[in-house]
User: Fold Shikimate kinase from Streptomyces tibetensis.
Amino acid sequence: MSGPLVVLVGPMGVGKSTVGQLLAERLGLSYRDTDDDIVAAQGRTVAEIFVDEGEAAFRAIEKAAVHRALAEHDGVLALGGGAILDADTRALLAGQRVAYLSMDVEEAVKRTGLNAARPLLAVNPRKQWRELMEARRHLYEEVATAVVATDGRTPEEVTEAALDAL
Ligand code: S3P
Assistant:
């Protein structure tokens, strides 16, 4: 019950899962992802939960999953991109080592494109990305102890930069 050693935050598609697994390997730690926890517990995909119950219900499920993982996991923990919208979650992250993996809007559009599995981007990806990042950038920065830019970098390069920055 010691809590995570490294938490990864940042927008969807930025590479939290890939970098998180590489970081965990490098540090000899286990990797956990709160979206995976939610899918396993619910027996549904994130997109299905959004369609079935709406975003507010998903956020409540997500908050519980994130708080459980923060209490239980003592390795590398990646949070879903919107987890930092919750003020209680941001408060829980104070005092943790938190890496914010960042990318600019054009990189985000390029990486995620039109992706039905990502319900927040289904209609107009560029406009939605711009709004999403304007609403969230300061929240990622608020919880971060290190900001790691991912634009034009491979997952291995991002992992090295995160190890240096953390
Ligand atoms: C979301 C990010 C997703 C997932 C859901 C909502 C968001 O997680 O939780 O689609 O609001 O940014 P990833 O960041 O792991 O893709």
